[in-house]
Amino acid sequence: MKLKTLALCAVAGVAFATAAAAERASDGEVKIIYWQAPSILNPYLSSGTKDIESASLVIEPLGRYGPDGALIPYLAEEIPTVENGGVSADLKSITWKLKSGLVWSDGSAVTSADVKFTADYCMNPDGGCAQAAKFEGVTSVDIVDDLTVKVSFSEPKPNPYGPFMGGQSPIIQMAQFENCTGAKAPECTDENFGPIGTGPFVVTEFRPNDVITMAANPNYRDPAKPAFATLTFKGGGDAAAAGRSVLETGEFDYAWNLQLAPEVIDKMVEGGKGQAIAAFGSLVERIEMNMTDPSSSLPEGERSTAKHPHPILSDMRVRKALSMAIDRDLLVEIGYGKAGRPTCNLVPAPAIYASDNTDCLTQDIEGAKALLDEAGWKVGSDGVREKDGMKFKLLYQTSTNAVRQDFQALIKQWWSEIGVETELRNISASVYFGGDPGSPDTFQKFYADVEMYANNFDGTDPESYLAQHTCEKAPKPESQWQGENINRYCDPEYDALVKELSATGSLEKRGEISRKLNDMLTKDSYVVVPLVDRGRVSAHANSLGGVVLNTWDSELWNAADWYRIK
User: How many other C-beta atoms are found inside a 10 Å radius of the C-beta of residue 390?
Assistant: First the structure.
């Protein structure tokens, strides 16, 4: 991709343009399009990026991460640290103080009771909270006074910024959600579709998997913001249509995640209506290997649970062979250009946490064949391997997206070269990432052998992200199929190392442990097969000012600062 096309994201010190409107709601409508349509506006009930980011316009955390990963206070007076006394010397507690005078969009006061309630809501064992890893090690959240809460941990917590930091862990209003806890959480449609918040916008109408309309929050804490009176958030379609709607036709002002071939984006930019922007962070496109049996012959409540190991993929040699057959350089070339880099790591950044693992970067078809031979999978007369009467057949699913379908086609071809038959399936992103416990097609249920997607962690410390692969975080019927351990990987050694990381203060040691955890998931077990370190590429209209792309938090993190260039 041409560098002149990209405004590569800078640093947290970027000065927001002084041309911003001097009075709230003076700039009319702003229109955002995500080709993955939001299905809920409660991040605690969905780990889908499109749900988290659309909700971030309405509900906010105590602190956010800036474009360079720096911690920025939002609802909090300041970021607590050991130096300012907000983090205890023994690293076992962190005390947050809310800004005074904050109100919800309904005009009621924001208090520490709301913060405590948010923690209790997510930590309720019957609630199936999608962000449970954020509260790893929390023993209690106690109210100190109306504006102050103290979060206590069972062990020293060198990185105590899991709860209430970033778009994945916002504060929700106790008065609105107090009857929606535990198993009732998914049933509260009105609350989950229209949360009362502190953000720059309020929901006026939400049509799941389609359109959200919003209006400027009349009680937003900055009287001059947001500049826009209304906001339309359109979901669905595909990345190409989203890109054209900003860069060629000018119908929309902002398009998220243009997962398109580089030459396609360059051609769109020639339309003259907007510009593409990109930045690298921790977003990795990968294949997840299902460690459980998703067969439809099993009872519904037992499919893709630890009760039934996967009949083919439980053998690490098989998983490694599948990885070895992939040409990651070609995937980058056809899918992302300069906005992608081949990777073997689930955690590609920051540098201190990135493993030096490069084993997967060279495609090795012959080596993959030899490994499958060693594992007892012999090529049959039809070219498909078999073992003990079982054909080597895989169902490979992902969301509907042009680049992902290109990846599927290439990987299917490479796998056929080593004797693997692959059935391809693509599912609407709104359904795939939706988190509906009643749907058989979510990536959490994982009713396939392998599946592909990308996600990332907010902030610059991967502890919570790596903790997602501990045994107890596997989605299962009892948790309403919520949980971050999508492939149902379970290794007591891994869990012990996560616990050690949570009690380690030395930055150097934290980097060492994190790299080891990354390697356990990737080159040691091939449970996760990273493909591409993706630069986030989005687009905005030439007339939209104030946009600063942020890969460490919600992409809409500073929508309050957006304005119309006159």
Answer: 11
**CA gap 1, 402 in Å, rounded:** 17
Listed as ranges, residues in the chain with pLDDT below 50 are 1-21
Tell if the pTM clears 0.85, that is, is over it.
Answer: no
Q: What is d(CA 407, CA 287) in angstroms, rounded to the nearest whole number? A: 11
Please state the length of the chain.
Answer: 566
| CA distances, 207 to each of 75, 194, 229, 238, 514 (Å) | 28, 11, 20, 18, 40
Q: Which residues have a Cβ under 8 Å from the Cβ of 17 and sit 6 or more positions away?
A: 545, 546, 563
Number of continuous H segments (helices) and E segments (strands) in the chain: 14, 21
* 522: number of Cβ within 10 Å: 24
The predicted structure's pLDDT at residue 12: 34
Beta bridge partners of residue 279, listed in sequence order: 536
Question: What was the pLDDT predicted at 1?
Answer: 32
Nearest residue to 397 via CA among 367, 362, 433: 433
Degrees, nearest 5: CA angle 284-288-294: 155
CA separation (Å) from 505 to 70, 82, 91, 312, 433? 18, 12, 9, 40, 35
Q: What is the pLDDT of residue 329?
A: 97
99-140, pLDDT tens digit by residue?
999 999 999 999 999 999 999 999 999 988 999 989 999 999
Alpha-carbon distance 537 to 240, whole Å?
12
Alpha-carbon gap, residue 221 to 213, rounded angstroms: 21
Q: What is the DSSP letter of 508?
A: H
On whether the CB atoms of residues 344 and 547 are closer than 8 A, the answer is no
Q: b/e map of 327-358 (b: 16 or more CB within 10 Å)?
A: bbeebbeebbbbbbbbbbbbbbbbeebbbebe
- CA-based nearest residue to 206, from 384, 388, 51: 51
- Sign, CA dihedral 533-539-542-545, equals negative
Q: What is the C-alpha separation between 489 and 287, in angstroms, rounded?
A: 14
Sheet containing 93-97: order of strands? 93-97, 148-153, 138-145
What digits encode the pLDDT tens for the residues 339-375?
899 999 999 988 889 999 999 999 999 999 999 999 9
Nearest to 224 by CA among 18, 14, 78: 18
Give the per-residue SS3 of 206-238. EECCCEEEEEECCCCCCCCCCCCCEEEEEECCC
